[in-house]
Amino acid sequence: MSRQALGKGLRSLIPQGEAVNRNQVSQIDVEKITANPFQPRRHFDQDKLEELAESIRNHGVLEPIIVRRTGDEYQIVVGERRWRASQLAGLGTIPAVVKELSDREMMEMALIENLQREDLNAIEEAEGYRILMDEFAMTQEEVAKSVGKKRSSIANTLRLLTLEPPLKQMVAEGRLSPGHAKVLLSVESGKLRYALAQKVLEEDLSVRQLEKLVQQRPKKAVRKDSKDPEVQTVQDELQRLLGTKVRLFYKRGKGRIEIEYYSDEELERIIELLRG
């Protein structure tokens, strides 16, 4: 899928180049603006924010941010880095275009902007997709269409959320690549996954080297792909809903479900989800 397709929804929201009508741009008090509650990006590099703040001190904010009105205040749709940097730069106001948007449109556009600029790590991207599905009852197909990606790409990214928290942290920090993570997902044992991840970090193993290492492990340690496709689909859906590793054992209408957790807090979170 091309970047042109990915940016289609974003271009319909943000005025482009000479098409910007300066009459649409308002100077809004930075203190009356709040962050996007649906912002998929969780980490903002402080050094880069400082660099952007210095640029803003010297040249001002060259591209207006996009906001929506909420009573007497505003929520950011696009441009949270510029807003944060403007605060660091000591600006009292920031140029902004005000749009009327639903929560779903706001989430979609924030996600598209970050994907287009490649600002999200793989875990943030996956969490963004999960919010669209959970909060707005979107299917994987609808998410794929909204961000201009294939459904299989959405499904593979969502699988990263079934990793144990320490491994998700490694991916979020860029110490493990999504490619490494996908190989680790083929390993059944959580302890073995973690041990292999540590080996990747210590020996700087490539994805191909990790694949070979996994293939050399005892067969029982690697997930078999012979599970009934319908059972696998239900298992994947449970993992997506609960955000953790789930095993579904099914035979002739009977079986059991195993749900993994890795801390008391994780257990409480899962219980709250099950309670609805």
Describe the structure.
The protein is α/β, with parallel strands linked by helices and 276 residues long. It folds into three domains: 3-114, Conserved hypothetical protein from pyrococcus furiosus pfu- 392566-001, ParB domain, CATH 3.90.1530.30; 163-221, no CATH class; 229-275, no CATH class. Helix content is 51%, strand content 13%. The protein contains 14 helices and seven strands. It has helices at 3-6, 8-13, 46-59, 80-88, 103-116, 122-135, 140-147, 151-158, 165-172, 178-184, 190-203, 207-215, 229-242, 264-275; strands spanning 25-29, 33-34, 65-70, 73-78, 93-98, 246-251, 254-259. The strands form two sheets. It has a five-stranded mixed β-sheet with strand order 1-5-3-4-2. A hairpin with a 2-residue loop joins strand 6 and strand 7. Helix 5 (103-116) packs antiparallel against helix 6 (122-135), helix 7 crosses helix 8 and helix 10 packs parallel to helix 12 (207-215).
